[in-house]
């Protein structure tokens, strides 16, 4: 199973519960996962956030899948958290407790999935979508795609993946600069600083990702999986840093700055954070 486009439909049964993700079998055990809210630029609402935290468990247990490729439908990879969802979560302890668990699972479930994960970053990537894009084992980005860890724009700490992976990928100096300023980075700059694996023209993003996936899908499976496992011990060693950053991000949701940040983003204006008005 997984070696042909004619793989029987029932091999996708484990993925029928997903509403915001589409699945397609490709040759050589490659599973293509498409984030599918194109009308919202694939922004994550409550349901999609949950799905992005759980799907890697199914990929890990899927005997027909050797490699997963994740991309976005339409023009975006994923344009961050749905702002209506964000505003529902502010100062909501129960909701934020669930978000914290899911945000942790997005990171650790990709790290611990024994199958390689490749991201095909076809457009803007922010928030939980960016976590998926950069926690992937190999990342292919469009030259004109733009990404940012937008937490500081919202008024919360950079907690959902940045502290665990950015310093490893691009070094502390660049990580601090882009995480503290929340400046956007295009695909070329992301490749230059080492934040992504490879930058290609927009039309070549998915073909390149699928070509790399095919190479992995036809390679020595135990050796590939154990190499991933070994390398990810660098990521696991930063687990306490990540856990602290995530907890501090969640704590920010009980501050007044996040309310102003969410409204300002929706109104497309610069925020006036209460913490700057003392």
Kindly report the CATH topology: 2-enoyl-CoA Hydratase, Chain A, domain 1
- Which structural class matches the secondary elements? alpha/beta
Number of strands: 10
DSSP helix count? 13
Report the C-alpha radius of gyration, rounded. Answer: 18 Å
Shape: globular
Helix content: 40-55%
How does this model look, in words?
- By secondary structure, the chain is α/β, with parallel strands linked by helices.
- The chain has one domain: 2-enoyl-CoA Hydratase, Chain A, domain 1, CATH 3.90.226.10.
- Helices cover 48% and strands 14% of the residues.
- It contains 13 helices and 10 strands.
- It has helices at residues 46-61, 83-89, 93-112, 127-135, 151-154, 162-170, 172-181, 187-192, 205-217, 221-231, 233-236, 239-252, 257-267; strands at 21-26, 30-35, 67-72, 78-79, 117-121, 125-126, 138-142, 146-148, 185-186, 198-200.
- Helix 3 (93-112) runs antiparallel to helix 12 and helix 6 (162-170) packs across helix 7.
- The radius of gyration is 18 Å and the shape is globular.
- It starts with 20 loop residues before the first strand and ends in an 11-residue tail after the last helix.
Write the layout of secondary structure elements.
Layout (H helix, E strand, L loop, with lengths): L20 E6 L3 E6 L10 H16 L5 E6 L5 E2 L3 H7 L3 H20 L4 E5 L3 E2 H9 L2 E5 L3 E3 L2 H4 L7 H9 L1 H10 L3 E2 H6 L5 E3 L4 H13 L3 H11 L1 H4 L2 H14 L4 H11 L11
Helix pairs in contact: 1-3, 3-4, 3-12, 6-7
């Amino acid at each position: 199973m997984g070696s042909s486009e004619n793989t029987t439909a029932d091999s996708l049964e484990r993925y029928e519960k997903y509403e915001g993700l589409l699945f397609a079998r490709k040759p050589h055990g490659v599973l293509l996962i498409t984030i599918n809210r194109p009308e919202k630029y694939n922004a994550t609402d409550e349901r999609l956030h949950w799905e992005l935290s759980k799907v890697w468990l199914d990929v890990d247990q899927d005997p027909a899948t050797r490699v997963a490729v994740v991309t976005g439908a339409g023009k975006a990879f994923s344009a961050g958290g749905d702002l209506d969802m964000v505003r529902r979560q502010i100062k909501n302890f129960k909701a934020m407790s669930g978000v914290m668990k899911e945000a942790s699972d997005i990171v650790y479930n990709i790290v611990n999935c024994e199958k390689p994960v490749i991201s095909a970053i076809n457009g803007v990537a922010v928030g939980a979508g960016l976590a998926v894009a950069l926690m992937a084992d190999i990342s292919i980005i469009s030259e004109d795609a733009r990404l940012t860890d937008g937490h500081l724009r919202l008024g919360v700490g950079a907690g959902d993946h940045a502290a665990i992976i950015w310093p490893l990928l691009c070094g502390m100096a660049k990580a601090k600069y882009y995480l503290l300023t929340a400046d956007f980075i295009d695909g070329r700059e992301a490749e230059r600083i080492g934040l992504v694996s490879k930058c290609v023209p927009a039309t070549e993003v998915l073909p390149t990702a699928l070509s790399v996936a095919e190479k992995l899908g036809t390679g020595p499976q135990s050796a590939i999986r154990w190499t991933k496992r070994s390398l990810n011990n660098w990521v696991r060693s930063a687990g306490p840093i990540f856990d602290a950053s995530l907890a501090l991000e969640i704590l920010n949701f009980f501050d007044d700055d996040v309310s102003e940040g969410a409204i300002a983003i929706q109104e497309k204006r610069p925020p006036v954070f209460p913490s700057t008005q003392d």
